[in-house]
Amino acid sequence: MTRSERQELIDKGLLLPLMEEFYTIQGEGYYKGTAAYFVRIGGCDVGCHWCDVKESWLPELHPATETSKIVANAAKYSKTIVVTGGEPLMWNMNELTGQLKAEGLQVHIETSGAYPLSGTWDWICLSPKKNKLPTEAVYNKAHELKVIVYNKDDFRFAEEQAAKVNANCILYLQPEWSKRDKMVPEIVDYVMANPKWKVSLQTHKYLNIP
């Protein structure tokens, strides 16, 4: 296969840089505690300094994998598939979600929303970052807004983001893992004073599972 042929398949979403895939329990947000199959796509240039999967940032480190193979693996394990990254919307998600939906699967995405929305999703978890803000289409379609709280300024940022999402979007504040001891009490106080928000925790880390 020539480089141009390979790039054409990537542009169509028929090849994706697959970092890892695994069956586990969703640890965060609305679907926490439920079984799901995670597909982690490599590639991200949002550049959060506290990112816990920085190894996902460079797409060339992860094998360009046939989308049909990703779908075949996913269908063996779960009815709920979570596409995450990296930043999956750097890539064309139409083919992946189309094939997953054809298998009768429920398809979720976890995204910063920094790139144009592609794909057909049953659930969109929008986790915006200050470095590169979401597109308007993602704000309009997000089912949950999950803001990571690293310091006090993130409460201001959270309110700015909450003002942009649709009225039915569920609002979550989640402590950045390394700052959880400091920020959890502040998040609790904030949610009690502003009950439109809910607390999200990375429960999978407390359970010591992927």
Structural class: alpha/beta
Q: How many β-strand stretches?
A: 9
Strand content: 15-25%
Q: What's the gyration radius in Å?
A: 17 Å
In which range does the helix fraction lie?
25-40%
The CATH topology? TIM Barrel
How many structural domains in the coordinates? 1
Low-confidence stretches: none
Please count the helical segments: 7
What composes the largest sheet? Answer: 9 strands, mixed
Strand order, main sheet: write it out. Answer: 3-1-2-4-5-6-7-8-9
Textual characterization of the structure:
There is one protein chain. The protein is an alpha/beta fold and 210 residues long. The protein has a single domain, classed as TIM Barrel (Alpha-Beta Barrel). It has seven helices and nine strands. The chain has helices at 3-11, 67-75, 94-102, 136-141, 153-162, 180-193, 203-206; strands spanning 15-25, 35-41, 64-66, 80-85, 106-111, 123-126, 144-149, 170-175, 197-199. The protein has a nine-stranded mixed beta sheet. Strand 6, helix 4 (136-141) and strand 7 (144-149) form a beta-alpha-beta unit. Helix 2 runs parallel beside helix 3 (94-102). The longest helix has 14 residues, at 180-193. The radius of gyration is 17 Å and the shape is globular. The model has no long low-confidence stretch (mean pLDDT 94).
Could you give the topology of this structure?
Elements: H1 3-11, E1 15-25, E2 35-41, E3 64-66, H2 67-75, E4 80-85, H3 94-102, E5 106-111, E6 123-126, H4 136-141, E7 144-149, H5 153-162, E8 170-175, H6 180-193, E9 197-199, H7 203-206
Parallel strand pairs: 2-4, 4-5, 5-6, 6-7, 7-8, 8-9
Antiparallel strand pairs: 1-2, 1-3
Helix pairs in contact: 2-3
